[in-house]
C-alpha cells in the first residue's frame, strides 16, 4: 500500500477556549497531554503511516508551529499561507505540491491540528482502511461513531457498504443540526460525526475540485510549480476564494456518489471544542483536569478543570467547594466559571473585552 | 478635653485571608477601600482626635508600615518590636513612652490596624465619649452592638450605667462563644462585641498592669527611658511575657470594677476576619466586591469577591455563573472558592502547601 502524505491545516484561534487559546497562541498549541501539544500529538499519531507531514499555517504562527514540528520521525515542512483562505486552498495547495512531486496517485490525508484521539492504534487502523479505499479511487472521510445527539458537529449520512472495502458510501454531509434533528439522526442510525479527516489520491482530489471550482484547481496546480513566496505566487493565492473542503469538494462529490466513509468506532475522539470537552479529555485519576504545567489543589471540586496558558506555567491553582469549576490562568487574565457555561465563552469574552476597554 | 495618643499594634499576618495576606504582606496592608489600606484608614479615622500616632510592628514590616504612615495629618512614629510579644507589651511600651513624654494623665488609645469602620463620624463620637470616661480614670473599651450571634468575636458583658458618662461598667470579658452561647448572649441582651479598642490614661493603664504583672510594668517603664534599640533595651524586651492586653489588664480589671465600655451603635464595624467579611465590607454597586486595582467582570455571579495581592495588580478577573464566588489572585497562586468556605481557609492553605511542596 502507498504511504500517506499528511497535511495538517493549523489555522484558527479556538475562541471557545479563550483566554487559554488566542490568536497569538492557537488552540493546537495547548498541551492537553503533559508536555505534548495537540498539534504534536496530531503529527505523532499519523507518523507510522506517513511519508511526510506538511503543516499549513499563518506567517504569524509559523515559528511556533516549527517548534512543534521539530524532531518529528518523518520529514516535515511548515508552509505559511500568505493570507487565511479556510481549508480548501490550504489542503489543495499541499495536494498540488504532492501531485507535482510524487505523481497523481500519491495519497494525501488531511487531519485537524487541534483534535484529541485517545486510542491511536485504532485510529491508525481506520486510517489504513481509508487509505485502501482511497487507493481504489474514492475520496474517503473518517466518520466518528456518535455517542450522544451532539449539536456541535456536522453529520455524515452513510449509504451502502462498498464491496471489498471496510467502507460505506456517503449519501450526504449535513451542517450542525439542532437538538431535535440530532436526536433523530441517532435514533435512525447510519449517521456519523464529521471530524474533518479526508484521504484521497492527489489527482482524484484535485480533479474533483476542478469539476466544482476549475479556476481554483488550476491556480493551485500552477502554484505548486512556482517559487513561493514570490509576487506571482502571492497574486494567485490572493485571488483564491476562501472555502472549506467540505463545501468545495466533499458535499458535491458525495452527491455524485464518489465519497466513501470509514467508521472509526471507539477511538476516543474529541474536537476539544470547548472547556467541557477539554475537561473530558484531560481528566486525571483524582477527577481534576489539568492543562499546562501547573499544580492544582482540588478540594470538594469533582469534575473541575484548571488550565494555564504559556504565560502562566508553574503556577498553583486551588479550587475548593465548586464542582465542575473551570479556572483558566492566562497571564493577566483569569477566567473562573463552571462547565455549564462552556458553550457561552464567546459571549463571556465579548463582555470581558468590553469591561477591560472601558476601564 | 485631652487629645489622644494613638497606638496601633500592627502584627499578625491574617492567615484566614491567605493567599491575599501573608507574613510578608499582612492583612493591614490590604486596600479594602480603593487606594487606602486598612492601616491607612485606621490612622485617618482617628486623626481628628489624635495628638500623634505610633504604629508598633515587626522589623520585617517596618518599611511597608512607614510607607502607609507617610503623609499623615498628625505626627507619626513607627516602632519596630525586637520580637513579637502579642498586644500588651506593644501597647504597654507605647503607653510608657507617652507617660514619660507627656505625663501620667495623657490619654492613650489603642486601635486595631486591620479592622474596617464604615461610619467614621459615629466612630469618632464614641471614641470622644470613651476619652471622657478615660479622663475620669476608667480603663475604657468600645463595644460593638451585635447584629447576629457571631462565634468569631469575644463578648463584653456590660453592667450598670455610669453616672455622668455615656458608658457602662464592664462585668466581664468572654472568650469567643459557641453558637448556643452566642444566641443566649443576644437573647439576654447587655452583651457587646469586643473590638479590641482600649482608651485610658497612661498612668491608669500602667498602674493596672503593675497590679497584675509588676515586673512587666517595671520593664516597660524602664524601656521608655532607654535608647532603643540598644543591647540593654533588647534584653528587657526579650524577658517580657507574650500576652494580650485583654488577658493582662482588661479581664482582671473588669473583675475589679475598673473597666467601662462605650457602646458604638451602628458604625459599620468589621474585623475583616475572613473572605466573607471582606466581601461584605467592599461590595460595589453591581454586587461584586473588588479588592486591589483589578478589573472584574461578573456575569451571573452575585455576591462574589475578586481580590488581587500587590503582585497581581492591574489584572482582569472574570467570574461567571458562580454566586458568592471568591477568586484571589496572588502572584503565582490563585484561590477559587465560595463564601461557604470562608471559615476554612487555614485548612485549604495547609492542603495547598502540602500539594505544592510535594510537586
From TrEMBL, chains A, B:
SUPFAM superfamilies per record: Guanosine diphospho-D-mannose pyrophosphorylase/mannose-6-phosphate isomerase linker domain, Nucleotide-diphospho-sugar transferases
A GO term for molecular function: mannose-1-phosphate guanylyltransferase (GTP) activity
Family annotation (Gene3D superfamilies): Spore Coat Polysaccharide Biosynthesis Protein SpsA, Chain A
Domain Nucleotidyl transferase: 7-284
An example Gene Ontology biological process: GDP-mannose biosynthetic process
Keywords: Nucleotidyltransferase, Transferase
Signal peptide: none
PANTHER family: MANNOSE-1-PHOSPHATE GUANYLYLTRANSFERASE
Protein's UniProt name: Mannose-1-phosphate guanylyltransferase
Organism: Nanchangia anserum
